[in-house]
């Protein structure tokens, strides 16, 4: 039985290199976190739906090679995996172009065997998902996911949620996004938001405002990531600022937050306090943003 199950979408990733050419890989926010969790030695599974195309086969192979449990990466006949392109500017900031409207991942909780996926999630100690995960599903799928999270929480599972708000994923419907996020946050044990995203969705004026707002949902542990400004950790009724260890000139900021989340969660599962866990998050994120693409080469992550 895996200790963590991550829920979301894995896509084919094409990332433009310094020579202008695109290199092929695979990524997706919760998948990136799953990879870095597995590399940290955490037993990790991934729940999604893929197609029966060769790229979906390669995604499963890549996940398996990372040590991720792929038994709940469901294959759907006649469908293909989603695709996205990453371009980066001179500062390492990235922009994305997606082809994912018909991705089978959107139907994970409406497929004929969705109950088996839900049962697997309920049995896992830690469940990891993001705002991008929530944006995938129809109202029916969301209802089933939220019910699954509630059952899991009642059985003692911890829910870890990264807000990761992307307006395009919600079709500009901020009211719907807020309502769905509120339901997820009511079930959340650890929140790992990024301040810029929270400002876009909720209008927060500061990381402290974000942490305080999330506490009103009953979230007992909050880490507000704020890029080069460090992170604000609120847990056990106390708050602390955790700065980055040293400035880093980014090459590509893709998966900075995803990798931070993985290192933070791995450290917490290993018994470390929130402050040192955030320091571990900064270290891994600093390594990731010095390379192109979401996933570090194995030798760079050693």
Describe the structure.
The relative contact order is 0.14. The protein has a nine-stranded mixed sheet with strand order 5-4-1-8-9-10-11-12-13, sandwiched between helices. A four-stranded mixed sheet has the order 3-2-6-7. The two termini are 26 Å apart. Helix 1 (29-39) crosses helix 9, helix 3 (114-122) runs parallel beside helix 5 (139-154) and helix 9 runs antiparallel to helix 10. The chain has 302 residues and is an alpha/beta fold. The longest helix is centred in the middle third of the chain and has 16 residues, at 139-154. It contains ten helices and 13 strands.
Question: Could you name the key traits of this structure?
Answer:
302 residues; alpha/beta; 13 strands; globular; transferase; PfkB_Carbo_kinase
Give me the Rg, rounded: 18 Å
User: How would you write the strand order of the largest sheet?
Assistant: 5-4-1-8-9-10-11-12-13
Q: What would you call the shape?
A: globular
Quick one: how many beta strands?
13
Uncertain regions: pLDDT < 50 for 5+ in a row?
Answer: none
Average the pLDDT over all residues and give the rounded result. Answer: 94
| Structural class based on helices, strands and sheet pairing | alpha/beta
- Order of secondary-structure elements: EEEHEHEEEHEHHEHEHHEEEHH
Give the CA-CA distance, first to last residue. Answer: 26 Å
- The biggest beta sheet, please? 9 strands, mixed
């Amino acid at each position: 039985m895996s200790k963590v199950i991550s829920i979301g979408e894995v896509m084919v990733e094409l990332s433009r290199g310094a020579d202008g050419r695109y290199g092929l890989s695979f990524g997706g926010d919760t998948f990136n976190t799953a990879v870095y969790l597995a590399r940290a030695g955490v037993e990790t599974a991934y729940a999604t739906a893929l197609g029966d195309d060769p790229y979906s086969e390669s995604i499963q192979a890549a996940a398996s090679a990372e040590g991720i449990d792929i038994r709940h990466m469901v294959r759907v006949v006649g469908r293909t995996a989603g695709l996205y392109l990453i371009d980066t500017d001179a500062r390492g900031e990235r922009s994305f172009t997606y082809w994912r409207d018909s991705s089978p991942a959107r139907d994970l909780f409406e497929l004929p065997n969705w109950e088996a996926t839900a049962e697997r999630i309920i049995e896992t100690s830690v469940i990891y998902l993001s705002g991008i995960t929530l944006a995938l599903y129809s109202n029916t799928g969301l209802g089933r996911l939220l019910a699954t999270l509630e059952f899991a929480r009642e059985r003692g599972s911890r829910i870890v949620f990264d807000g990761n708000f992307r307006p395009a994923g919600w079709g500009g419907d901020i009211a719907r996004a807020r309502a769905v996020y509120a339901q997820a946050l009511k079930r959340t044990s650890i929140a790992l938001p990024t301040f810029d995203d929270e400002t876009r969705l909720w209008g927060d004026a500061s990381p402290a405002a974000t942490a305080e707002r999330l506490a009103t949902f009953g979230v007992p542990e909050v880490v507000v990531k704020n890029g080069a400004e460090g992170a604000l950790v609120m847990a056990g009724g106390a708050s602390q600022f955790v700065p980055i260890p040293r400035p880093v000139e980014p090459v590509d900021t893709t998966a900075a937050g995803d990798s931070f989340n993985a290192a933070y969660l791995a450290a917490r599962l290993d018994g470390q306090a929130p402050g040192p866990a955030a320091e571990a998050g900064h270290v891994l994120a600093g390594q990731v943003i010095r390379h192109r693409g979401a996933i570090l080469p194995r030798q760079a992550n050693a």
